[in-house]
Amino acid sequence: MINGNYALEAGLVPAKDALGLESAEHNPYANILVTTPALANDPRIKALAKDLTSPQVAEFIRKTYNGSVIPVAPQS
């Protein structure tokens, strides 16, 4: 087993080359955006969170990584 980033660096396509894949649903290893309580309401953090969950970023991830990286569910 290797993480997707190592597979991508090695020129592998996890969505195509993997013998098995973990489910993205309820995966404890998903990346999350965190901050300190002091910055929780910072407009920059809110803007980043909005951008990361946008349909545009989801589409970029899908096109760029061809299923090897799974975007968060876009917010409409």
Explain this structure to me?
- The protein has 76 residues and is mostly helical.
- It has one domain.
- It is 41% helix and 0% strand.
- The chain is built from four helices and no strands.
- It is elongated.
Instruction: Tell me about the largest β-sheet.
Output: none
How would you classify the helix and strand content by structural class? mainly alpha
**Count, helices:** 4
Query: Strand-residue fraction?
Result: under 5%
Low-confidence stretches: none
**H-E string:** HHHH
The domain count comes to 1
Could you tell me the mean pLDDT? 87
Protein name: Methionine ABC transporter substrate-binding protein
Keywords: Lipoprotein, Membrane, Palmitate, Signal
Membrane topology: Lipid-anchor
GO cellular component, one term: membrane
Q: Concise description?
A:
This is Methionine ABC transporter substrate-binding protein. Helix content is 41%, strand content 0%.
Essential attributes:
single chain, 76 residues, mainly alpha, membrane, palmitate, signal, Lipoprotein_NlpA
Topology record:
Elements: H1 4-9, H2 14-17, H3 43-52, H4 55-65
